[in-house]
Amino acid sequence: MPDLSGADFDVLYQRLRGQAQWGTTDRRGALNHITPGRVAAAASEVRLGRTVTLAAPLASSGPDNPEPAARHMKHLPSEPSEVAGVSFAADQLTMNIHGDVDSHIDALCHVSYHGSLYNGVSPDAVTSQGASELSIEDAHDGIVGRGVLLDIPRVRGVQWLEPGDHVTAADLAAAEAAQQVRVGPGDLLFVRVGHRLRRNQLGPWDVARSRAGLHPQAMEYLAERQVAVLGSDSNSDTAPSLVEGVAFPVHVLAITAMGMYLLDYLQFDDLISHCEAAGRWSFLTVIAPLRLPGGTGSPVNPIAIL
Amino acid sequence: MPDLSGADFDVLYQRLRGQAQWGTTDRRGALNHITPGRVAAAASEVRLGRTVTLAAPLASSGPDNPEPAARHMKHLPSEPSEVAGVSFAADQLTMNIHGDVDSHIDALCHVSYHGSLYNGVSPDAVTSQGASELSIEDAHDGIVGRGVLLDIPRVRGVQWLEPGDHVTAADLAAAEAAQQVRVGPGDLLFVRVGHRLRRNQLGPWDVARSRAGLHPQAMEYLAERQVAVLGSDSNSDTAPSLVEGVAFPVHVLAITAMGMYLLDYLQFDDLISHCEAAGRWSFLTVIAPLRLPGGTGSPVNPIAIL
Amino acid sequence: MPDLSGADFDVLYQRLRGQAQWGTTDRRGALNHITPGRVAAAASEVRLGRTVTLAAPLASSGPDNPEPAARHMKHLPSEPSEVAGVSFAADQLTMNIHGDVDSHIDALCHVSYHGSLYNGVSPDAVTSQGASELSIEDAHDGIVGRGVLLDIPRVRGVQWLEPGDHVTAADLAAAEAAQQVRVGPGDLLFVRVGHRLRRNQLGPWDVARSRAGLHPQAMEYLAERQVAVLGSDSNSDTAPSLVEGVAFPVHVLAITAMGMYLLDYLQFDDLISHCEAAGRWSFLTVIAPLRLPGGTGSPVNPIAIL
Amino acid sequence: MPDLSGADFDVLYQRLRGQAQWGTTDRRGALNHITPGRVAAAASEVRLGRTVTLAAPLASSGPDNPEPAARHMKHLPSEPSEVAGVSFAADQLTMNIHGDVDSHIDALCHVSYHGSLYNGVSPDAVTSQGASELSIEDAHDGIVGRGVLLDIPRVRGVQWLEPGDHVTAADLAAAEAAQQVRVGPGDLLFVRVGHRLRRNQLGPWDVARSRAGLHPQAMEYLAERQVAVLGSDSNSDTAPSLVEGVAFPVHVLAITAMGMYLLDYLQFDDLISHCEAAGRWSFLTVIAPLRLPGGTGSPVNPIAIL
Fold this sequence. Notes:
Oligomer: homotetramer
Shape of chain A: globular
Structural class of chain A: alpha/beta
Strand content of chain A: 15-25%
């Protein structure tokens, strides 16, 4: 049974949208929370000089990956070459930008709700040629700031949240308290639900039907804290949805209402051991989307630097 | 007329290979020059909190791009959706990893010379399934360090180096002096030849025939300085080659002899104005290759943070 | 200077559209001219038992092929296999359906003119998911009939028509007379302009600017003769266009007005020698589009059987 | 438990290979059984003038299709166009040539057994650039002949053969008797096991584990009859294999020993009703592989003409 009626959700949507006030021509959304001063401060998070990936390797076909990415060889270095004195290994990549397993970032054109993209931009801005507005190119200089990881299974004392379970604002607050970190303005917030650990241990399942994520009302917490970006090891939305008649309410609230880029299907298991060893859950983070003109997002490998 | 005979080149090759001594099982090559201490020091380069892309947008077909990348839409947000209450923009990407225009990084499996990849690894390690050794996955935690940009056209007082021209060790030293910066151990060295500015102003040309790059002997300078990574707005190799019988001598020296990742066809024109304004030519740099198991490289968007 | 004003073209368009009367729900268009009786009669054209391709091999990149098809290997038979006792060669294909060099067929959804596809179908029938009407699946049982080749360079006494030149109804009549063949109801008409021979001998050029084809008024000749399908070794349209303000008038007339499938960039040079040897210019022809649901056309290899 | 030991299989392999005697340079294999006279005779099979597809539409992802083909739109006709006066629908196709659901033909380079392709050709003839010998281009003029459909479920009085079941030479003889047709030299033999009907009715399953096909010894029957091509609605091989240590024995016997092109995952359900109505099980058949230089096969839509 959904937690939120469609009407209640729309009230929430309007409230969050009303807080995203950077002018009618704004295309950066919650990235506006990242200021030069905050970037410089985030750099001071680097103490150990350790770098860690927040992405997972490309996955092969499975119940959560019906159209897997493919990498094909174009030339093998063991073969004769047309080039003098040298032989190359070269390959080619074909992949969907979105999906339910490979780590990626959603651009602000990714979600239309009530006939509108972020900040009133018409969905017609996206044609077969791509997005003329709100494409991933709007983040071409990268997204750099202080990353904070909130590890919900850790604070709940479980290995992972079961599919269908959700993270509330209270969970976020409890994780902050347990981890002794406070999410603040311009932060890149990473919420771990344990999705990937479960996948590694039990194997993939049909996540379109059953997936842990955030409760839509938890987005108010992110708005209050002026979070710049949200990433998760799931896609932040639960399945089934907690909202009547709206399948991806967190996507709608984050991207369309708040102008907040989402990072889906990240991998935090490498990062956790570094955080635990350091006794710290914040770090400099650099997200470098590919420069895909008109693109609705990008595969990414966010790098945490402790 | 080539500057270097094949025999002289092999002497150079052996000398540089002999300096890359990290053990027979090493797979990181010149990345070994990047230590945690150097990463932490590089973070202190961040002062302004400004971030800048070092990549160019995906290019369309042209004389330097006979097999262009393609981005196709999978769903438009203006169209009815099968998902309740929301409509998505989604797309798909097909691209060659290497080539002569899109910004990318070469993994250490990319080049075979004299029947060997870096550090004696057999070219047979690369099959139709990809590279079982020396793939781009070896850099999955990102490449982070102090970036230094040496702007050769600036020190020479020209807009760009003409195709076929080359950068010598003396050019690098002159640029260091003029820019008041010194390349040191673990640095990510970016050498600008003006390739992209020329392309933007005069249009693309057949760069396989005619291209500015580094003189192969300049690689000794990089070895002495213990550079970790080399990037250029061309592919670092001149065309025609300056070496008799070897088409890509800088690729061979950097990747196969020195174990040095190359970044090809970067874009420094955005960065230059930041550097000039700041009066500094060094900055924190984060390179985040995609996690492509078996891959020979990756498209990248390196981010400089000043 | 165009031969036809926009207004004159519209008169021609309406006249040809008016002759295509198979009811408001028809989706087969000129294929209706092919009756079982005519298929059976076409089979009697087979006398020698010789089969000939009317397609060219996939082309590589060139001025007429800015986004070339690619075929990549997935497994090599010389490599160890996960399959017991056997090793496979396998590959993968990526290609645009249309373009200016690879042999293909255009489905009836391919062209919209004055806001309409063939027979008043809305262009909105084609979305990012493909064509819900008039897709190539409408020809899934193949197109089989009597093929007739009219060789215009032959009757004109030239090697090929120069780019920009056009074939008139008089040319078609002259070729019929010279070749002693008469195009009739349900025939698959192939008009050779010599495009591919010129390409083979002089190399590719930018055909988007300069291309031999049919004069738009020649389509009246095809309508009178009740031709079922038109194929050419160019794309049947001249460049520049002979019609003011309409870039592909033959495509518009054939596909949108007449409901006639077009076959573009076929290859007749193999066929000619067979026809000359046999002293006949008609033959059984089988066109077998791939079964691509929603597709706007298909790569094809039409087979002539003499 | 396998029916055939590895040693017995090798005896069978050698015997069938010994019967394929068209000289050391032959690359056509069993296509040699198709003579011009037989093509001409096959044309006389056309009586009704009806054409029928033997292919299925491209399938989407499923347990038998882990890497599905994709068709993406490049332009929609409802969108503004850069072309004067007209707007196009255009798309792009990406697909694996082989696999377990889409109808395709296997070229003679597809299978290596005991370190050899057909007729002693080295597997090294296939590199990352494709097959330099035995590619699908060897069939570029199409494969045309008399097709004969043997419907095994019909003669057995079942809807379909259950996965794992196999067709014996006795089954083939029984079907011939029941259908009053005799397979002869140069025929294109189609053996229906009911795979596709089962898939349509029960949904897809993991056919790599469990699949109906031919018993390897039935290939002797095909050799005696001098069959030119074998097609099935499965891939002709059972799963699990009936041969100890050889996963695809029919592929090995047909392609490598006999030089016989295989057509996998065809669709006969449309054809059956035509055959039943006509009371005949033979027909003219045209197979038109795409012209894919170096290709290991091709998607196909074989057309039967009754």
